[in-house]
Design brief:
The chain has 790 residues and is α/β, with parallel strands linked by helices. It has 30 helices and 25 strands. α9 crosses α10, α12 packs across α13 and α25 packs across α26.
Length: 790
């Protein structure tokens, strides 16, 4: 186990710092971090209470100490962060107990591009400012993260601007999903790729609800595990958040978390020193079990992980301009709609990973590659293979990629390994290693095995594990050497038998220069799969290749009950679907999030279809279908927002047509939205705004950190039908309750809906809200119901 935590006993974190600051009298809407300077004795006193309860690690009062939240405050980031560390150090000195200080970095409150407006580079810079000011800490904890991309930005900032050990802690829902759709497996792949020192869970759930998530985390991760649950679920009492879980119950639940593999446990919202003391006592005799090393080869996107080696999979090769004039022209013209269509086609055809290559000499390859990754990840959940011979392109792309990428490629040349392995060590990734070196491609399997061994050994010297290397045995054309196929197949078998590595192969080169290439390609694919091929780089749109792949999986016992083979049933259904996707309808364009395609199809429809028929017949049903998928957990936030953008862009075209004809789209209800006073987290509010506008409602967005008086005045002036309020932080819920009371006093007929991570339906009802929106679509459904019942 890493020296970050004591291997002989459970390491104890502190509890809910925000809970204690609120109990100490923090005024509603006041920024908690300002008390580091205004009332340092209070912050230091809270730290001392946790130390006396048995905490080994104190988290600093810097959760929201970023320049976005502190904009307009009397103190800057450096002054606020340095005062926070000083308060923790003072408490440790006064208590006489040995303890460490963890620099806390929380969410910015903004969605990153392509979902929001904040760029990845700006997010890195925001966190870097905190890290530079927090150099006096002993470690850093990135906590309460609901977006894997923001998590990556924070981790990189810590690693690039300090030598602090890093804990990455995420806030999942009860189903094990982040707000932006990532699951536990995807986050483990990302965090381990970034070489964080520990991984964990915090906030959102109590210890009982977190137990199955921790068990899943333990099964996947080789890292020490950290858990900081809430003290149950909240309710309102006297205008403040109250958590009902008693210390002894919390301690017993924490004991179960320790048995499930946690190396360090503390608390988040609602956990007080008495909870920490009870937990310390209950877990005193426990010795943490070191995490078991995992050997799976895993790549990921923001949403999902793909394991390479469990059974063969397909890497889609279509987004590579080699031999593709239409794609070359699209790259030159910036025709991203065509490229996104290629991604959608290959996804529908069953590819598990998509290769992305934009290597044309006249292009700025690093810039184009990063733009392609950003756009494709905006509409596609699959992991991507970053394919380039240019080191600068790989470096830029790996930094920007949201997930743990597959990299194509490294080879046995010393120059190649010296360039690629440091990138993998910094950013993470799995690399395809070509069995060639300074002397070329060996003619024998033994020669290629020797190169593979050298690559694996060199990778280890850079800290890159064998599990993160996939060996490409190289496919040479049999028209030039009739033994080429046999050598490749022998190499595949020996790679499996002698080295125990994962394998990849570009299949179609085997038939270059020969007639009836498809027959040779499908036969060679089957032979390669039988010889140990794990990842076939092929065109998944080829029906013959798909049939050969599925037939092999069925005969090799990889297809339980022959389910995939039967479902394909002669490819009739899939082929029809692919033909539709090649020229998608407006409904399909919205479902796939293809904005430019949606606008083009809308323009065609408007030539013969009344504008409102397009809206009601295609746009709204498509958006409703996406919304149902979001509620069911089959569609995630990126797809929801991509579909909303496609609808919004189509609406703009329709709006112009209606205006030209003297008509207009019927307006439904008027809604005023705001994030309450003291809270700058407006992600949820912004998502609700986009969706409500797409459904035809008029939205007045007041922004974030809005006072009750301002919200009430705006609701009155706008003659609003509904007010929607959002809050993320427990310290700002009192401001939400004050706003609800003021609105009911001044506008008794007004409907009020509330939402945010700290709320529950019971909580919302107690404060007097008319509706609790568990997610964005729930809010839309409520407003739609109000409109229908008018």
């Amino acid at each position: 186990m890493t020296t970050l935590f004591d291997p002989e006993r459970l390491t104890i974190f502190d509890g809910g710092l925000g809970t204690m600051i609120q109990a100490a009298g923090l005024p509603p809407g006041h920024i908690p971090e300002l008390w580091n300077i205004e009332r340092p004795h209070v912050i230091s006193g809270i730290h001392r209470q946790y130390l006396e309860a048995g905490a080994d690690i104190l988290t600093t009062n810097t959760f929201g100490a970023n320049r976005l939240k502190l904009a307009g405050a009397p103190y800057g980031v450096r002054q606020t962060v340095e005062a926070a560390i000083a308060a923790a150090r003072s408490a440790i000195r006064d208590s006489g107990r040995p303890a460490r200080v963890a620099l806390s970095l929380g969410p910015t409150g903004k969605l990153l591009q392509p979902l929001g407006e904040l760029s990845f580079d700006e997010a890195c810079d925001i966190y870097a400012e905190i890290v530079r000011a927090g150099s006096g800490a002993d470690l850093a904890i990135v906590e309460t993260m609901t977006d894997s991309y923001e998590l990556k930005a924070a981790v990189l900032a810590i690693k690039e601007h300090s030598s602090l050990p890093v804990i990455a802690s995420m806030s999942f829902d009860k189903h094990g999903r982040l707000l932006t759709g990532g699951d536990i497996a995807a986050l483990v792949a990302l965090c381990e790729g970034l070489r964080v020192d520990a991984i964990g869970l915090n906030c959102g759930l109590g210890p009982v609800q977190m137990l199955p998530l921790l068990q899943r985390l333990s099964a996947l991760s080789s890292l020490p595990l950290v858990v900081n649950p809430n003290a149950g679920l909240p309710r309102i009492e006297g205008g403040r958040s109250v958590y009902d879980m008693q210390p002894d119950d919390y301690a017993e639940a924490a004991y179960q978390l320790a048995l499930a593999g946690a190396a360090a446990i503390g608390g988040c919202c609602g956990t007080e020193p008495r909870h920490i003391a009870a937990m310390r006592k209950r877990c005193a005799a426990l010795k943490p079990q070191p995490p078991a090393p995992k050997t799976q080869t895993v790549v990921s996107s923001y949403a999902q992980a793909v394991v390479i080696g469990e059974q063969p999979l397909i890497i889609g090769e279509r987004i590579n301009p080699t031999g593709k004039p239409r794609l070359k022209q699209a790259l030159r013209d910036g025709d991203y709609a065509y490229i996104l269509q290629l991604a959608a086609e290959q996804t529908a055809a069953g590819a598990a990973i998509l290769d992305i290559n934009c290597g044309l000499p006249e292009l700025d390859e690093p810039q184009i590659m990063c733009e392609l990754l950003r756009r494709i990840q905006g509409v596609c959940r699959l992991p991507l293979q970053i394919d380039s011979a240019d080191t600068a392109t790989l470096a830029a792309a790996l930094r920007q990629y949201n997930g743990k990428a597959l990299v194509n490629s490294v080879n046995g040349k010393a120059e190649s390994m010296a360039a690629i392995f440091p990138l993998l060590q910094k950013y993470g990734g799995v690399v395809i290693a070509l069995t060639l070196d300074e002397h070329g491609i060996p003619d024998t399997a033994a020669g290629r095995i020797a190169i593979a061994e050298r690559i694996i050994a060199t990778a280890a010297s850079y800290g890159v594990a064998k599990k993160d290397i996939i060996i490409d045995a190289l496919t040479m054309t049999v028209s030039a050497n009739n033994q080429a196929g046999a050598v490749t197949l022998e190499t595949l078998r020996r790679l499996k038998q002698e080295l125990g590595v994962r394998t990849a192969l570009g299949v179609s080169n085997i038939s270059f220069g020969l007639p009836r290439r498809e027959l040779l390609n499908t036969t060679f694919l089957t032979m390669a799969l039988h010889s140990g091929l794990d990842a076939a780089i092929v065109n998944p749109n080829s029906a013959a290749m798909r049939e050969a792949y599925r037939a092999y999986n069925t005969l090799a016992g990889n297809d339980t009950g022959c389910a995939a083979y039967i479902a394909a049933a002669g490819e009739q259904t899939n082929t029809a679907a692919l033909r539709q996707t090649a020229s998608p309808t407006l409904h399909q364009s919205v479902m796939l999030g293809l904005t430019e395609q949606a606008v083009a199809v809308t323009a065609e429809l408007l030539a013969a279809t009344p504008p409102m028929d397009v809206v009601n017949g295609q746009l709204i049903p498509a958006l409703a279908e996406v919304g149902r998928g979001f509620e069911d957990g089959t569609v995630f936030l990126p797809q929801l927002l991509a579909a909303a953008e496609a609808v919004q862009s189509s609406f703009e075209l329709i709006r112009a047509r209606l205006a030209a004809s003297g008509a207009g789209r019927p307006q439904k209800l008027k809604i005023v939205l705001a994030t309450v006073q003291g809270d700058i987290h407006d992600i949820g509010k912004n998502i609700v705004r986009v969706l409500l506008e797409n459904y035809g409602h008029q939205v007045v967005d007041l922004g974030k950190d809005i006072s009750p008086e301002h919200i009430a005045a705006a609701a009155l002036a706008e003659r609003a039908d509904v007010v929607g309020l959002s809050a993320l932080m427990t310290t700002t819920v009192a401001a939400m309750e004050d706003t609800v009371k003021l609105l009911h006093t001044r506008l008794p007929a007004l409907k009020i809906m509330v939402g945010g991570a700290v709320l529950t339906a019971e909580y919302a009802a107690r404060m007097g809200a008319d509706f609790y929106a568990a997610d964005a679509m729930a809010g839309v459904r409520y407003v739609e119901q109000l409109y229908q019942n008018r």
